[in-house]
Specification:
alpha+beta, Rossmann fold, Dna Ligase, domain 1, 5-stranded antiparallel beta sheet, 22 strands, globular, binds adenosine-5'-diphosphate, binds magnesium ion
Amino acid sequence: MKVLVIGSGGREHALVWKICQSPMVQQVFCVPGNGGIAQEAVCLPGETKNLSRLADLVVEIGADLTVIGPEAPLVAGLADELMARGLLVAGPTKAAAQLEGSKVFAKQFMRRHRIPAADFEVGEDRETASASLGRWGGPVVLKADGLAAGKGVVVCSHPAEAYEALDSLLSGRLVGEAGRRVVLEQKLAGEEVSFQVLTDGKTILPLVPTQDHKQVWDDDRGPNTGGMGAYCDEGILSENLSRRILDEIVLPTLEGLRSEGIVYRGVLYCGLMITEEGPKVLEYNVRFGDPETQPILFRLRTDLAETLTALATGHLQPGPLSWEPGASVCVVACSAGYPGEYQTGKSITGLEAAEEEGAKLFHAGTTERNGTLVTAGGRVLGVTARGPDLATATKAAYTALSKVHFAGIHYRRDIARKGLERQHPL
Ligand SMILES: Nc1ncnc2c1ncn2[C@@H]1O[C@H](COP(=O)(O)OP(=O)(O)O)[C@@H](O)[C@H]1O
Ligand SMILES: [Mg+2]
């Protein structure tokens, strides 16, 4: 079969890499891809915003399955466009993608279906939002309603900060139109875990839970980024807590969608806070996490092309996915200045030496220029390694990363530390 992957980041490189390993797959295409993906798949130029053009392309290349990486085309309705033409797609419809596309929709959905989450109010405009904030007792989190590439959430420590954040959201200064409507949310305390499942709307196959590292500097300091690294091992969640997450969050979410006439086919990502009262949803994403997908797929044994095809046809087989035991870690190497303004076009060396260490380098912001690989984004590479335990996997990732060079490279030195220091699963 032929598979098309949509997107251009580290997540998509990991998807392409894994799909290429399937004996069912003859050829993998990627729109638009990146410098690393181009070494493993046929990259085609394309505007991921132009849905009907993308659907034309799927037909032209004869792709048997399209896997949609990023949220924007899902929220815009790419899955619907493909399904309307009778094409197989792994990724939810526009109606289902509202879970990520509108935080107001997601919060109201969770309230309707009694899914544990932070208490909230909706600020439809400046007047109602200021009034809500005036009544608000205690710490508040402000969230832009629409897609904001990780820049639409402000966790406020005091009221002055909250009023300022509200103003920067509603005025459009922070994230433009996405912030014209806001959610005011109770601030939760606990540890964050990403819990993702593959589902065809009926059968649920959990992926291994992961922890992401959002802030740019060690010890979770500095501004938020798209994600500086992630890891997974057996020690994040206890079996009991995983069960509770499935029973209290994942199942009611899918049942809730079904009761509203929505069939969900794709990855459902639950961003959770593990509070003293139990797991609560911080947000839903309607696609694979980035960079969580890199360490997850690096441990997955199951044939992903076969699984995603079954998912797309609504015939996902029950029974757990198969995993390499132990742990995996992905450390993201970034361009100088990221997550602020950064430069591109810096030549990258040491990739082969790094992969000789047994690591896999998933490219995010790279491109080929005159036969050499150069930086082309804020997040450049996700150096991913595996091991029998978290300490070994972490060491392997950093050893491999030490071989990689480009001008201004920076990365966190403490990816997976939380896991290494944890005595018992959450
Ligand atoms: N209710 C909350 N309490 C505490 N922290 C929160 C809350 N909601 C979000 N956060 C923090 O803000 C981050 C981003 O929020 P999230 O809802 O995941 O939005 P997005 O990923 O779209 O930016 C979370 O990973 C978490 O660290
Ligand atoms: Mg998030």
